[in-house]
Amino acid sequence: MSNDQHTDHDRLSSEQTAEVATAETTVPPSDERTTDLRPGADNCYKCTACDTSCPVAEVDDEFPGPKFQGPEQWRLKRSEDTDIDDSIMSCSNCMRCDSACPSGVPLSQMHNTARGEYVEGMSKLSREYVRNRILANYGRLARLGSRVPRLTNFVMGNRVTKWFNEQLLGITSEREFPAFATQTFREWYDERGGSKIESEDRRIAYFHGDYSNFNTPEVAKALVRVFESFGYEVAVPEQRCSGTPMFANGMLEDARRAAEFNVQTFSKLIDEGYDIVCSCTSCSMALRQEYPELFDFEDTELVATHTYEAIEYLRLHEDLDEAISETELEDEPALAYHAPCHARNQGLHRQALELLDELEGATIEDVGDSCSGISGTYGWKEEKYDYSMEIGEEMFEEMEDAAGTTGLTECPTCAMQMEHGTGYEINHPLELIEKALV
Amino acid sequence: MVNAPTVLVIGGGSTGCGIARDLAMRGFDITLVEKGNLTNGTTGRMHGLLHSGGRYAVADQASAKECIAENRILRDIASHCVEMTGGLFVQRPEDSGEYFRNKLQGCRECDIPTTVLSAAETRAKEPALAEDVERSIAVPDGAIDPFRLCVANALSAQRHGARIETHAEVTDVLVEDDTVVGCNVRHHTGPGKRTHRAPGTTEEIRADYVVNATGAWAGQIGELAGVDIEVRPSKGAMVIMNVRQVDTVINRCRPKGDADIIVPHETTAILGTTDKEVDDPEGYPEEQWEVDLMIDELSELIPVLRESRSIRSFWGVRPLYEPPGTGTADPTDITRDFFLLDHEERDGLAGMTSIVGGKFTTYRLMAERISNHVCEQFGSKADCRTAEEPLPGSEDFEVLRDHMEAFGLRSPIGRRSTQRLGSRAEEVLTTDGPNPVLCECEAVTRAEIQDAIDQSGTDLNAVRIRTRASMGNCQGGLCCHRMANELHPEHEEPTVRTALDELYQERWKGQRHALWGEQLSQAMLNHVLHGTTMNRDHDPARQETLDFDAFDTGIERTRASDGD
């Protein structure tokens, strides 16, 4: 700067600058400011497609809908405004508004950021905060509980525990807590000695997430075996929760820590030629869309562009459809398939149907494009349980009408809801593919 | 005052309304006439800057000193119209360092408080600024809503007994024995609050004194009175962005030039401006290149403007004036000072004074000066109280800030409504009935619309300037009809329809120069929505001679098809 020498000289006495300084104190330094998402409102022309696609707005009259939560609320914001309307906590983060918007308004980014700001201002002692923190950090509890899975399952299934959870924490007693597997996926993987295949050019790093590690290891095992059958080396690096339940509960600091760990670990593997593959569509969603929207660690973009959902990856890089069409299954029950909202957002909501249509012996029926209603932790909240079931009603009815009595979906919490509403057993498409190919 | 002198004020802009308030508070019997709605002229067509005086600190220090003094007064008496955003004079690498120092020195000489910010401090304050800005001077610039300010002045004048007549055009100035004794006025839809489709009337308004506060139109009133007033109207273009790119007023720190300011205004940011002399304050070309120039030039300061959405643009005319014989060629060099033209002294015509020149920030001072002058004519010793007495809406506002959430409204809606209404919030927003949001872009509820209708009859543009309803990104596409609906059942369908048409037209007018990108999509969506749901593009009911009997009832056809 050529005129630097004048700067100090030009400064006036503090007394004279007091008036200006007052006007400035309202503006926090840039590193403390939250992202300014007001420009995102430029894309909105108020067509209201987001509101009509919002499952929560349909059942909850108090919820003003994504158009208000997103572009309208952001546009009305001034830099010094910190208060966020509490209705943001009723958004289930299904992200259907994102895919409904014809104009690219970053709705879920707006919601996630506003929710984070709202939660920052919440009392850390309130029941809602404590409950949401617990739900958002399910993985930490699971780590403890799965050390003694039988005892945990007994305690969590106990009527007294459920009553206690509902009264004290506001976690609904209507739902069955998901059972922990007696052996976690990671224990199984270590026990078998890691990947059976070593390969220089076909290698994936598996992001399994907490649920398939602790609760449904059969899904994770299916992924390993299916990829190995195509000659892939499957690495299973250390990892934390993808952050999905944390975003949905506005626990952005928890999410930031988890995301940073995941980005650091997985980006190293990308450098070694690995691509990241997920079996849960919400996990792949988090790595691909939410990380770059909310964080800017080094390599966040790199991780996002190298992340795939499992079936998507095999359809892109291998001829999975061909392999499936050459095999057949016998005595396979008819299946009722539900596409998770987060799969829809990644354009993946038709792939399981298209693929398994080629599989002789399998009968698969789509149960429509409605939301299952659970949206991760949303349906676990005592005050949201009824809404959650009302949203799910359409899917339950379609499932009842479908020929099969076994459900199929990629999302673990959609699976919980499907089971809860119909009593059906629910599988993951990878399990079916494993059965067909391995 | 028994038999108070009657004064007729012509012009419902900031100066006229300020004069009406000042004189009414001093006990005069005031009538104000305005040919459109309040702020119809220059006041409603400015960029909303509350000057710190910094812009004039080098070239026009007298104006700068007046600005900073009035800036401090308005923050106090008009707090609900002012947002103290602060302002920056930003130096880019190609801008002169010497001018930067002159600016700082000038501010110091005019008692304008300043702080010099380094490049890093400047960008920390406004992250949207270009990365290569060198440094800036922080000054107490602010944003001010000219509509609310003008309306509050008129409201205060009314509370002091004034009669305010909008849509009342002066058709003649009455002169008897070399003295102005009043005016002939044409009321577009009769006197009082406006009612669309009501027949127009004329009225002779006689007064002991006439004040011509018509700004750029002063010459036209002068002509009716037979005197020459050489105002030199100069047009300036302004562009409204959909969102705020900045929360501080950003000025380019360079001597003079077009497109050197961006003002955060309510939900939007306003880019300004140009300076070009025109012959007629109403008939001048509005050209696309002026809009393009604004965006191109200001993108050097704020690069994101290049890909940001603009929702409309507008042009205003400055009421510039310089004494005969000064002969300044470039309008940017004409002083921004104001002049009081006593036509008795100047032209031998008693009973009338004109006020010309000046700027919005000093409207109150101008009103004070001319009110003093009127007082002298009548030997009145009444003091001016406009610098101390807050405007309606700005009384005890701090107390109310604590009750922002008290009206059952969601947070940004309650917050915006309370900011607009100030101390009137409780009176306006307390309602027994349902109070839905009618304008979603600007967060305006039914209660606020109804309050504005109470003030302004069926004139939905007058409702608009009071509430900001229909001024957001959909430009009325989703709310014009909801606003019009509020006129029913007090008004019949044809009246409501005419009022709606007028508002919708006005909203459309300003979008003509913003039809690209997102605003083009918006305009198309609005057009299709209004065409398909209200048949606004081809409404047969608008034809006076529609033959309803020619339509079949539909019943016979249904019966016939039953037999198929």
UniProtKB/TrEMBL annotation, chain A:
This is Anaerobic glycerol-3-phosphate dehydrogenase subunit C. It comes from Halocatena pleomorpha. Residues 1-13 have a biased composition (Basic and acidic residues). Residues 80-113 form the 4Fe-4S ferredoxin-type domain. Residues 1-41 are annotated as: Disordered. GO terms for biological process: anaerobic respiration. It holds the Pfam family CCG. GO terms for molecular function: 4 iron, 4 sulfur cluster binding; metal ion binding; oxidoreductase activity. InterPro entries: 4Fe4S_Fe-S-bd, 4Fe4S_Fe_S_CS, Cys_rich_dom, G3P_DH_GlpC_su, Helical_ferredxn. Keywords: 4Fe-4S, Iron, Iron-sulfur, Metal-binding, Repeat. One of its GO terms (cellular component) is membrane. Residues 17-27 have a biased composition (Low complexity). Coiled coil: none annotated. It comes from the Archaea.
Automatic annotation (TrEMBL), chain B:
One of its GO terms (biological process) is glycerol catabolic process. Residues 7-363 form the FAD dependent oxidoreductase domain. It is a peripheral membrane protein. Pathway: Polyol metabolism; glycerol degradation via glycerol kinase pathway; glycerone phosphate from sn-glycerol 3-phosphate (anaerobic route): step 1/1. It comes from Halocatena pleomorpha. It comes from the Archaea. One of its GO terms (cellular component) is plasma membrane. The keyword tRNA-binding does not apply. Its main location: membrane. Belongs to the FAD-dependent glycerol-3-phosphate dehydrogenase family. This is Glycerol-3-phosphate dehydrogenase. InterPro entries: BFD-like_2Fe2S-bd_dom (IPR007419), BFD-like_2Fe2S-bd_dom_sf (IPR041854), FAD-dep_OxRdtase (IPR006076), FAD/NAD-bd_sf (IPR036188), G3P_DH_FAD-dep (IPR000447), G3P_DH_GlpA_su (IPR017752). Pfam families: DAO, Fer2_BFD. Residues 438-487 form the BFD-like [2Fe-2S]-binding domain. Keywords: Cell membrane, FAD, Flavoprotein, Membrane, Oxidoreductase. It is found in: Cell membrane. It catalyses: a quinone + sn-glycerol 3-phosphate = dihydroxyacetone phosphate + a quinol. The gene is glpA. Its EC number is 1.1.5.3. Its cofactor is FMN; FAD.
